[in-house]
Amino acid sequence: IGNTVLHILVLQPNKTFACHMYSLILSYDRNKEGPGSLELIPNNEGLSPFKLAGVEGNTVMFQYLMQKRKQNLWSFGPLSTVLYDITEIDSWAEDQSFLELIVSTKKREARQILDLTPVKELVSLKWNMYGRPYFCFLALFYILYMVCFTMCCVYRPLKPRTGNRTSSRDNTLYVQKMLQESYVAYEDELRLVGELITVIGAVVILVLEIPDILRVGAAKYFGQTILGGPFHIIVITYACMILVTMVMRLTSTTGEVVPMSFALVLGWCNVMYFARGFQMLGPFTIMIQKMIFGDLMRFCWLMAVVILGFASAFYIIFQTENPENLGQFYNYPMSLFTTFELFLTIIDGPANYDVDLPFMYSVVYFAFAIIATLLMLNLLIAMMGDTHWRVAHEQDELWRAQVVATTVMLERKLPRCLWPRSGICGREFGLGDRWYLRIEDRIDPNKHKMMRYTEAFKVQDRDIYDKGSEKLETNGDTLCKKEMSALSLSRSTSRTSSHRGWEILRRNT
């Protein structure tokens, strides 16, 4: 019952009342330090009160709980050294990491905890010592891997075409070699080494990604942009395309260019994932994801309807015309592609002025230019501009969240020998088996002096206001107007004294 009440207090909107009641309940806990402590008992979701405060973004309760856990090591003048308990914060030995819970929650208030002590210092320590070097090495390794795969695709086994052309539009010169012909010369063996590296890399990607999907869940793993959800979809699809290409090569099946082309596009697009390791580029990856899966996905439905309607109209108009004079609409698939290019203003309106064009072509093209170019494209630009403005105001929070997500990902996937545990064991200071982070703090005396001035002014204003209120209550109705004027006078006196006090404070600053 006590543990349930603690979880309820974390969710209370009245933070001050919740903190007092939290301390009152813990004062009756018999197992304050043992494993049966109320603070260590998780709820049905596996969250302790401390982790629940982080997930809900309750910064007041989080700071209150951290103040209870800290140990003052020494103090000398304005300098002091504090040991913060990071047992539940550190993701080194946690199945359900506190840092991962914060970056994966949908509440923006939770990301503010990443800027609080000691979370900020712990993340900075992990990222600067281990996260950034490993992440940069991983980015370099992936780029070299993609260069290897690209070279294997560029020099894939091809042979001259032996059959005759069946159409005047047939432009094929080379065809794919059979498996027995693909690995004969020395260059083929060299390419085989690169292909084996590519296939092994795809298998490693699947082996690393699938356990995380099973642990976190597909919806959460692919849906969180800060965790790199869309990039996980890209890299898994890339690995699957590599395996499909390998099967088609081994079975001598024609058409390997299709999965190979998809793999090249997806593999190089995944390089943008490593932009999160740089503060200047990290928020832009979030911006691109939100634009693609937010603005662009909604816009594509409208664009598909417009393209489908006008492409059908163009095809019907040129269905009776000679395709040699104006071949952009010679069949229905080509009409769809040409209309898509016209929609994005990639090409100008196709027209052959040596022949007579149908009158309806001018009418339909005029309507298409007004709707597509002037209206819908500007609508898309406005939607993307709004998304850019919203993300730009959160770029610092998003950068910190990306760093935390990347650090937790690397810490889970790398061996323990390459990533030792951060902090100091409490045994060195006689504090048990819990782990602590040493933080040196400098107390600014001028800051405390100004805070005392501020509190004094607040007390003075409060006393004057209370005196005026008491006079108003003791007098009768006949003196109501007189006392109201006295109250306004006392308030003006309060403002004057407050103004004088703030002048002193401003001079001190």
UniProtKB/TrEMBL annotation:
Q: Does the keyword Transmembrane helix apply?
A: yes
**Annotated GO biological process:** calcium ion import across plasma membrane
State one Pfam family annotation: Ion_trans
Domain Ion transport as annotated: residue spans? 135-394
Q: Which residues span the membrane?
A: 134-158, 192-210, 231-251, 257-275, 296-318, 359-381
The entry's keywords: ANK repeat, Membrane, Metal-binding, Phosphoprotein, Repeat, Transmembrane, Transmembrane helix
Q: Which GO terms describe its cellular component?
A: plasma membrane
* Keyword check for Transmembrane helix: yes
Top-level taxon of the source organism: Eukaryota
The record's section on PANTHER family has: TRANSIENT RECEPTOR POTENTIAL CATION CHANNEL SUBFAMILY V MEMBER 6 (PTHR10582:SF25), TRANSIENT RECEPTOR POTENTIAL ION CHANNEL PROTEIN (PTHR10582)
Its name, as the record gives it, is: TRPV5 protein
Species this chain originates from: Prunella fulvescens (Brown accentor)
Per the UniProt record, the lineage of the source organism begins with: Eukaryota, Metazoa, Chordata, Craniata, Vertebrata
